[in-house]
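Memo to structure team: turn this sequence into structure tokens by end of day. - J.P.
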Amino acid sequence: MESASFQGFDIAMHDPGIALITFNQPQTLNAFTHRCKRDLVETLTQIQMDDTVRVVVFTGEGKAFVAGDNISASLPAHDPARSRVGDIPRGHHNALGTYNGLRALSQPVNTAVRGLDKLTIAAINGFAIQTGLSLALACDFRLASPAAKLGSATLRFGLLPDEGGQYLLVQHLGLARAMDFLMRNRIVSAAEAHELGLVHEIVAAERLVPQAIELARELANGPQAAMRMLKRSIYNAAELTFGQALDEIASKTAVTDHHADALEGMQAFSEKRKPRFNRWLEQG
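Reply from structure team:
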């Protein structure tokens, strides 16, 4: 993966294998367009298949992380040089178009983020509304600046949290609090989000991205094979019975116990030294 610019976001690579994705449309509060979504899904697919990428960090420029979708009739001109895909219809022109637009364009962003085996961090610098809230909740870790505001608020427009926000909020808040959050159109401060458990930590604005990179570096230096499998096992455990979860992690352990990282970890323990994981990645 190389540093590059695409429709609505830039990618900058940091060692060891940290992809920093920055949404770069502050004039529209980084609101997503259908072109941005397509490029982002394609980028995340490439990241999934690229072993050199270990951790992904998302953040935004200006006052917003991502403040929903760009519903303006005036969209930036399509720039093929910055896009991974050709221009496409955005849908929503009729009922079937809305269904197809959600299933083919909008919802795949969050499924791509949640489906990554690599760990993900949302560095929430400002407004994370609707699409932005769902994206942040689909990440594995969330840091927020004191200026961050998180909410869905789709009912203010008579709309639904149609990109998976209702599911993710139930997972993070539980049924009763998710009901209150959505039905009362709540947009909460960073401090309230921290109390609710929606963010892990509040970080001074000037330290937000550096601290997210520090966390990413800590995670990137851990045993990647085991961490990728454990991430999937944790999410699976939320939807499995105890017996199913035991069988699921046993099947993954049958792989990780014989991986080079596990052999290195056990040898380092016996030699009373710090393990050096991920040589299999360094060897290409």
